[in-house]
Fold this protein.
Amino acid sequence: MTARTTAGGLTHAQHLIWAGQQLFEDRPLYNMSLAFRIEGPVDVDVFRAAFEFLVSTTDVLRTVVESADGEPRRVVLETIDPALEVVDLSGRNGAAEVAETLVQERSTEPFDLGDRLFRSGLVKLAADDHVWWISQHHLITDGWAIANLYARMESLYRAAATGTLDAVETAPDFEFYVDFEERFRQSDAFTEARAHWDQVVDADAEPISFYGAGPSPSTTTRTDRVTRRLGRRRSEALADLAAARAGSSLLGGMARFVVLAAAVFAVLSRIDGRRDLTILTPAANRPSRRFKSTVGLFVEVLPLRIRLDDDETFASLMDKLATETQALLLNARPGSSSAAANRSSSVLLNVIDAGFGPFNGWPMSSTWVHPGHGDPDHSLRLQVHDFDGVGDLTLHFDLARDVFDEERETRLLRHVDLVLDAMLADPATRIADVDLLADDERRAIAAVNDTDADLPFRTVVEGFRRQVVERPTALAVVDGDRALTYRELADDAAALAHRLEEAGGARPTVAIGLPRSADLVVAMLATLEAGGAYVPVEPSVPADRARFLLDDARVDVLVTGPGGLTPLGGVPTVEVGSPGPVTGPDGSPARRAPAPNDLAYVLYTSGSTGTPKGVMVDHGALANYVAWAADRYARGAPTSFPFHTSFGFDLTVTSLFVPLVSGGEVVVYPEHLGADLSVLDVFADDRVDVVKLTPSHLAIVDDDLLATTRIRTLILGGEDLATSLAARVHRASGGRLEILNEYGPTEATVG
């Protein structure tokens, strides 16, 4: 039996990786595999001896991780079978391709953490052509560690070839770092570093959206790696830009990172639209010479957060990044990383400064083998390196499959190229000025924005009048025991329109201070028939707000009535009768029909963040929206809506006008005393086809009320619609209710 030494707990970084692996035990999330193609006559026996010595003297290669009661512990074995897989493909056709397939297969095999955390092999392609590959679990390695391991193996091969292995100096054990971290985590310096990261981490940040797609809540871990060379011209230009910045404020390696990070932040800001952005980046965390030469996992993945200004240039962004990167490195202390930090961004940038030289004097080229899986919280992991020192940077784009389809992948790569080229050409360029559109995208945008359409009516008044002609005896408004047909509603509105013109002049601005009622619908149509614009003034608003609204909107006349707004001095007032209809001289239409450019209504904001602001919407915009909504929601048939929400809330515009231009009914639900729970009456009655409401309204509707027979569509607006609420309603209604999210600012005409 192999002797075992229990070394204790995992380091903080190891524990985070172990926890992530437990969620997907059968997937190679954290396999790190490199293949080194050596153009030389490698002696297999010498190589095997060197590799056995490497394993026996490197504690992390003899480390396994066992779990007891859900807690992991490191176990360092005194000995472990190196299990070097030697394959001879010399003389075989397509040997290189066969070797590539073999290495890929070995690199995607999940590790049994309690058995071993590495596997390796040597493939002979020809007498002077070999591939050494090694796959390790991230629990025992990082980019710098792989470079250390390669360098040590190369020196051990030379020693084995000369029979001097016994004279090779022993490499430092990872165990020393484990003890160091444990002591450091008890220090004041660690407390200060953690406080810094608690301030930086934005736990509420939404994942970056890549052209409308972000991480899904699924357990998809599949990723595709797209590998590209930056090209010598770009690589040299980037090196020159980094050198120029390093000469003023930064060390060379950090300067290159800052330049690349600037490009990443610039791309993300342009395609996502946010200014406050966070990416993740691994910090080497090797402050001493001893740690720099130790094989093992040292990196701490930390957030880098930047706020971009509207006029940000690449140069100014690099200045910000220089400051924040210095702060990151200063606070990148053992144990700094956290699960919260890892979830604070869906993008990771890893700029690796490590590299590999010749093997025993023979030329060597390396390949980083992708295991096909990655952290499900990350949509994009960009790995940048020049492992072989050829002066041409390699970029690995590891893209989450559930985020990037072929089109998004193509867009991202092209946008990275465009941003990089703009930055390298002139760092003083404003990021917002970089043109990212291709000709086909420009044409597509032009097509999407070509919104000219033949509307069925130029104004809602025209649409309503058509229904009066086509459906004169159909019910238009139902308010308890009172019901108005289309002809009756038109006659009452026309009569009131004459009175409004008499009191307020031509094209009056009319404040409507009525409670929810058939009279309010009459007053609204009468105002539009008179060529005027209405201003909702809820009867319940305080007198000072009512006075402000009337003065600010320069109201010409106030319409009120039973239960309505108390008349205010200085403003002509017209009262409507209730419950009987308003009568006029002859019931004829108003003398002037409104035009598309005429003002239709003014809705005021609450003023909670300052002075209330009036949003002015003209007839053209209103007709455009209502025609679209009628087509989408009424679908060419008479459709009824409830009038159950505030008249001063633009969400209600849909409920009033769509039925009146489609031949349906407006069913009025008067306000309740205290909290307005009219929405419950709407679902209990189940006498309309479509309900427009807020998510807050919908949330108070019990599941049993959602088993409706007539209500078929719910239109949500005014607030964010949570997926959980939509899912509950969908389940409760047996999937019968159509749920539509129509969320938009008042300035955009409802939706």
Q: What stands out?
A: The chain has a mean pLDDT of 91. The two ends are 72 Å apart (CA to CA).
